[in-house]
């Protein structure tokens, strides 16, 4: 899953990140399939769920389709998730328990009746995963000798080999950085893994965001064949189409059609974009810092901090804060050995604390809310206003006079007449409404109104200055409107500062807490829409409010301030010490001490976000110890994640022992002492992981002997498997971001429960990845245990569909960006005007190559740009593309 929201942020932020995939096949040395996502996708199309063989046929067909889009020339690596590190199991556990409960809730629906397959079976160690691994190995053995895969090493890593699929993949990429790599996965994790890899040629193939909806629509339009019907021979054989005469045509058509649902991401482009943001930084160290910072936004191993919300611009603010640290001059956030440089993190977290202070104040009902746009209206009425005439603007052109009069006549307001004003703007017109009394006119001006379901704008008017349509306007005698306005103003302020509104009005509560005497400047109220035009004259407002028995006024003119005679800002249940801390927190924000402001409110945070905790956690009532425990665990988690991404798993037993993150200000306090590195330990057996992540509803996926441990309420570990649990939506977050508050499993207790079975229960052994290869279509398929540190054939100058080597397209991109750095836009240097003339010509050609070659759009035979060809002699292929090019296509039935 990775970092929620990161993919959308990256696509919008990074130029050339998404490449064109409309003209497959694309050649790469190595193609890697993070296969659990493929299996889940096929489950959406599996309607006849009583017949598992049909699901396996769908999986094999999808495998063939992916090979037809991206053609490997050295290695095809199919990676199924094995046992995950303990840090990942917590997330897996939450998702599986939530899925089991949702399935129970949907049992009486049509979808529940049709979807009988337990998706929790896609977990290492289940019988289903054993059968899937065996099926894939058979597929590889049969198809490795097909012309499309001759000479390609096909590796199947099943669930019996420890490690997540993407990290098995990275073990290969780290050892062969000279190859071109294409990874197929929808997890944002792969973006970070590719970013910190040592290879310069990493691309990510993923389904487009709207693919799932379209796929389901297609599956509804085309029914599945009935069970027992004759299916295509190519699929039935679990491989490529057997009919060689039509194989190439079928493959090309299917690949092009299938490619429409996929997109290619260039990790090179992200790496170049980061380097462009920080041109003086070392690219490798910069990538490490970026990945470590993104941990604050949450991932599969750490909860996200509210102050770094990607959907709210949190990552952009984080990058801005990082820029202020001047990493190239003053040092990076991470060291060469991937440890956190805590003094540098202290500075970064102090920047984040500014945002966090506002988040916490909002949590306790003291948020400022969204910033209001500046007022551009006519302001308060002048002595020229007759007290009866109001302009109604923004009315639909289809509205009639009776519609306008009806909308203005609410609350028994008498409307004397309405008149359409000449002219219109974008389908809207304005009307003049004339009221019977000044009270009706004033009340209309301070209220919201709608005409034809659309909100309209109301302003006072001088009728003689308006150009009206129709008959001549009757002249009305001006009336005294000031007493009516004074009454409306007093009524509004008495409501705003009264017991009904103030306790729930976070904006006003914030300003009440800004001063110990509770006085609020009148200018604060200009943000309220109800009387915005009147509020432009604070001095006049203050005069009217002095007649109120419920409001006290201090000061004169623009400096006037008001407060309620009674303090109505305290909410039910708020204690005096909480109110005192709120005053102190707001005062610290006004003084610029954001870390101290957060510290003032940390007690409310850690009480509100307690939740279940790990066995070694401090007692729930010891807030200071809980704060320190979570903070040190979170900082250690950032180190663990970075090492996991860059080098592999540094500890199989480490995990973050809480459901909620600490505060950034709490992290600041823990940057003064070094962190301890967790021990490595060993991966868990598959059965132990199943015990850790499966809900009791899925206990049948376990060996029959140990199923009662999950089902029996008297089991010694029954507290790990609740059927009822709380789901925290975190005050309105998306449903998929909800936190499932489950108890943390304890490894020692589970092992002891399994040990009670003695020799009757034996865990499954580790099974190495299996490799298959046939040198040509006539030779037999050899197989062996794949070694990650073993040698692979050399890179084969792979090219895209237009015949442009991938390395050349990347070099053209890099050369173009160097040109952009060296020269500014507009007129070129020296002779010639602009970048198309004189010395600017080479840059223009390079730009064209970047936009086309890197997106697979350069036409065969087109010359590469001169600037891209400079210094690229070493990248030229050793032989012509016609020699041993393996120009073959996967045939899809």
Automatic annotation (TrEMBL):
TM helices/strands, residue ranges: none
UniProt keywords, alphabetically: Exonuclease, Hydrolase, Nuclease, RNA-binding
Domain HTH La-type RNA-binding: 479-570
Basic and acidic residues compositional bias, start-end: 835-846, 881-893
Xref: CDD domains: PIN_XRN1-2-like (cd18673)
Taxonomy, superkingdom: Eukaryota
GO BP term (any one): nuclear-transcribed mRNA catabolic process
GO cellular component: nucleus
The name this protein goes by in its record: HTH La-type RNA-binding domain-containing protein
């Amino acid at each position: 899953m990775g970092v929620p929201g990161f993919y959308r942020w990256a696509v919008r932020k990074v130029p050339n990140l998404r490449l064109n995939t409309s003209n497959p096949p694309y050649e790469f040395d190595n193609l890697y399939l993070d296969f659990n996502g493929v299996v889940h996708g096929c489950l959406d199309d599996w309607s006849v769920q009583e017949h598992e063989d049909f699901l396996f046929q769908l999986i094999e067909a999808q495998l063939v389709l992916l090979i037809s889009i991206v053609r490997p020339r050295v290695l095809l690596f199919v990676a199924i998730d094995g046992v995950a590190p303990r840090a990942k199991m917590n997330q897996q556990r939450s998702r599986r328990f939530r899925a089991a409960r949702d399935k129970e809730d949907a049992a009486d629906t049509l979808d529940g009746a049709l979807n009988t397959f337990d998706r929790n079976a896609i977990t290492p160690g289940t019988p289903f995963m054993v059968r899937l691994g065996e099926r894939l190995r058979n597929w590889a053995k049969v198809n490795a000798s097909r012309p499309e895969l001759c000479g390609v090493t096909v590796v199947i890593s099943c669930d019996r080999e420890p490690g997540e699929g993407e990290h098995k993949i990275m073990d290969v990429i780290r050892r062969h950085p000279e190859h071109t790599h294409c990874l197929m996965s929808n997890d944002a994790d792969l973006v970070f893994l590719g970013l910190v890899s040592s290879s310069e040629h990493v691309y990510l193939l993923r389904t487009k965001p709207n693919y799932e909806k379209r796929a389901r629509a297609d599956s509804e339009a085309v029914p599945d064949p009935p069970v027992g019907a004759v299916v295509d021979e190519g699929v039935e054989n679990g491989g490529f189409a057997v009919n060689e005469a039509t194989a190439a045509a079928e493959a090309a058509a299917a690949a092009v059609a299938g490619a429409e649902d996929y997109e290619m991401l260039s990790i090179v482009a992200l790496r170049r974009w980061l380097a462009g943001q920080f041109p003086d930084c070392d690219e490798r160290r910069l990538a490490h810092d970026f990945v470590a910072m993104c941990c604050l936004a949450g991932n599969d191993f750490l909860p996200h901090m509210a102050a770094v919300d990607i959907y709210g611009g949190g990552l952009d603010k984080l990058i801005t804060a990082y820029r202020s640290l001047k990493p190239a001059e003053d040092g990076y956030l991470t060291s060469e050995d991937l440890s956190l440089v805590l003094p540098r993190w202290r500075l970064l977290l102090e920047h984040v604390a500014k945002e966090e202070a506002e988040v916490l104040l909002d949590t306790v009902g003291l948020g400022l809310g969204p910033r209001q746009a500046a007022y551009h209206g006519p302001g308060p009425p002048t002595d020229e206003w007759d007290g009866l005439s109001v302009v109604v603007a923004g009315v639909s052109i289809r509205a009639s006079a009776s519609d306008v009069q009806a909308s203005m006549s609410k609350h028994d307001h008498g409307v004397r007449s309405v008149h359409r004003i000449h002219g219109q703007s974008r389908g809207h017109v304005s009307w003049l409404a004339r009221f019977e009394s000044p009270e009706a006119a004033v009340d209309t001006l301070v209220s919201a109104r709608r005409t034809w379901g659309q909100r309209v704008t109301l302003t006072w008017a001088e009728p003689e200055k308006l150009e009206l349509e129709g008959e001549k306007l009757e002249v009305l005698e001006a009336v005294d409107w000031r007493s009516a306005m004074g009454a409306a103003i007093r009524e509004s302020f008495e409501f705003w500062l009264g017991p009904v509104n103030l306790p729930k009005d976070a904006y006003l509560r914030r300003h009440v807490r800004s001063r110990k005497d509770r006085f609020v400047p009148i200018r604060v109220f200009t943000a309220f829409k109800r009387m915005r035009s009147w509020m432009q004259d604070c001095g006049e407002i203050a005069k009217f409010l002095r007649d109120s028995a419920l409001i006290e006024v201090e000061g004169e003119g623009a400096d006037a301030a008001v407060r309620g005679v009674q303090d109505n800002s305290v909410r039910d249940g708020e204690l005096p010490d909480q109110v005192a801390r709120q005053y102190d927190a707001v005062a610290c924000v006004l003084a610029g001490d954001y870390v101290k402001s957060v510290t003032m409110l940390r007690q409310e945070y850690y009480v509100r976000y307690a939740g279940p905790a790990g066995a070694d956690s401090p007692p729930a009532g010891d807030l200071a110890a809980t704060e320190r425990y979570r903070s040190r665990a979170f900082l250690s988690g950032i180190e663990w994640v970075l090492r996991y991404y860059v080098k592999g798993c540094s500890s199989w037993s480490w995990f973050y022992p809480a459901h909620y993150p600490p505060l950034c200000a709490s992290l600041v306090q823990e940057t003064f002492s070094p962190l301890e590195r967790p021990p490595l330990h060993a991966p868990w057996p598959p059965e132990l992981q199943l015990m850790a992540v499966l809900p009791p509803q899925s206990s049948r996926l376990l060996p029959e002997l140990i199923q009662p441990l999950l089902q029996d309420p008297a089991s010694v570990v029954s507290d790990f498997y609740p059927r009822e649990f709380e789901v925290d939506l975190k005050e309105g977050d998306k449903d998929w971001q909800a936190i499932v508050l489950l108890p943390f499993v304890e490894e020692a207790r589970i092992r002891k429960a399994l040990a009670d079975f003695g020799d009757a229960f034996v865990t499954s052994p580790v099974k190495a990845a299996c490799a298959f290869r046939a040198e040509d279509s006539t030779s037999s398929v050899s197989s062996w245990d794949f070694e990650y540190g073993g040698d692979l054939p050399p890179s084969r100058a792979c090219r895209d569909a237009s015949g442009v080597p991938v390395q050349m397209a990347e070099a053209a991109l890099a050369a173009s960006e160097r040109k952009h750095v060296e020269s500014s836009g507009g007129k070129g240097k020296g002779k010639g005007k602009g970048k198309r003339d004189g010395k600017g010509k080479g840059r223009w050609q390079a730009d064209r190559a970047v936009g086309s070659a890197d997106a697979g759009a350069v036409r065969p035979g087109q010359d590469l740009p001169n600037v891209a060809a400079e210094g690229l002699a070493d990248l030229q292929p050793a032989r012509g593309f016609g020699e041993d090019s393996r120009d073959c296509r996967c045939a899809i039935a």
